[in-house]
Amino acid sequence: MAHLSPHQEQHKSHRSGWLRAGVLGANDGIVSTASLIIGVAAANAAHTDILLAGVAGLVAGAMSMAAGEYVSVSSQADTERADLAIERRSIKEDRDAELDELALIYEQRGLEPVLAKQVAEQLMAHDALAAHARDEIGISPISSAQPLLAAAASAAMFFAGAILPLLTAWLVPMPHLMGAVAVLSILALALLGGVAAFIGGASITRGALRVTFWGVLAMALTAVVGRLFDVSTAL
């Protein structure tokens, strides 16, 4: 008789941390750099000025994303460590009370009192802190904060997103620069939103539309600002 392997499901939640940081970085890279280039171009600035603004936006944006993500996720990690320290001390000082607390959690999830107590005892015998971290506090290896990974993903993806409108602005001549940057950036945003939704197991169409909408709005608003400050009329 053939050996049957246990049923295994392919879940998506383990991707949430790096996926969120990566999508946010790439989206911000495309939107902010394209909007900056379009805004400066709409003001009738020189081609070199447009490229300089794009490069400055790329460098500043990548560093800002990395720093912001690192600080944000580090704060989350600090909170997690503080909670674990409190729980570790509580287990050491009053293990029986912590056992009752864990058993009550399982009862509230639907287990019979006797079974809940047995489960709590076995899990605490195996790894008491891990059991409380997971079931009382809500900290697990999947969701735990990873500041460096989040910062690196955000910076790298911002750079990857920003390089498209910047290269477009460099290669396309001035009369067609704004249109080319806008069209290629919108297509890139739609692709990004669709791929992110696919990886996350969500609707591809919805994911593409919501990313594209905000990108189009940002580029349109910066174009209006650029027109208001037309440098050609000031010369």
Sheet with most strands:
none
Helix percent reads: over 70%
Low-confidence stretches: 10-15
Question: What is the β-strand count?
Answer: 0
Give the termini distance in whole angstroms: 87 Å
What is the subunit organization of this protein?
A: single chain
Tally of separate domains: 1
Short recap of the structure:
The protein has about 240 residues and is mainly alpha-helical.
Could you characterize what this model shows?
- This protein is mainly α and 235 residues long.
- It has one domain.
- Helix content is 81%, strand content 0%.
- The protein has seven helices and no strands.
- The model is unreliable at 10-15 (pLDDT under 50).
Provide keyphrases for this structure:
single chain; 235 residues; mainly alpha
Strand and helix map with partners:
Elements: H1 16-42, H2 47-93, H3 95-108, H4 113-137, H5 147-171, H6 174-200, H7 204-228
Helix pairs in contact: 1-2, 1-5, 1-6, 1-7, 2-3, 2-4, 2-5, 3-4, 5-6, 6-7
